Amino acid sequence: MGIRNNSNRVLNPMAIQALDKFKLEAATELNISDEYKSGYWGNITSRECGSVGGQMVKKMIQSYEDQLAGS
Questions:
Q1: Distance (Å, whole) CA 29 – CA 48
Q2: What is the mean pLDDT of residues 15-24?
Q3: Is the pLDDT score of 15 beyond 70?
Q4: What whole-number distance in Å separates Cα of residue 54 and Cα of residue 46?
Q5: What is the C-alpha separation between 16 and 46, in angstroms, rounded?
Q6: Of the candidates 23, 32, 8, the residue with the CA atom closest to the CA atom of residue 60
Q7: Would you say 30 and 55 are in contact if contact means Cβ atoms under 8 Å apart?
Q8: pLDDT the model gives residue 71
Q9: Which of 32, 58, 34 is nearest to 46 (CA)?
Q10: For all residues of the chain together, what is the average pLDDT?
Q11: What is the mean pLDDT of residues 20-49?
């Protein structure tokens, strides 16, 4: 096995705060436990974290499709 390469990095460092805000918005929309508001996600279940990520991807795809459609 080779050395692991972390591909989960933000390509634009200026986007880190915006992505954090986006993650919090997605968690709020899904009524995830308020424990994430402290910034620590360790007490959140894997299912809830996956739901937040899925919601983020869903909204990103919708935004891109809207841009393509010219809306």
A1: 12
A2: 89
A3: yes
A4: 12
A5: 22
A6: 23
A7: yes
A8: 64
A9: 32
A10: 86
A11: 88
User: What's the rounded Cα separation, in Å, for the pair 45 and 36?
Assistant: 11
What is the 8-class DSSP label of residue 11? S
In the numeric block, which tokens belong to residue 20?
Answer: 């954090």
Backbone angles phi, psi at 8, to 5 degrees: -90, 60
Q: What is the DSSP string of 25-68?
A: HHHHHTT--GGGGGS--TTS-HHHHHHHHHHHHHHHHHHHHHHH
pTM summary value: 0.75
Dihedral angle over CA of 16, 9, 68, 70, nearest 10? 10
pLDDT, average across residues 19-34: 89
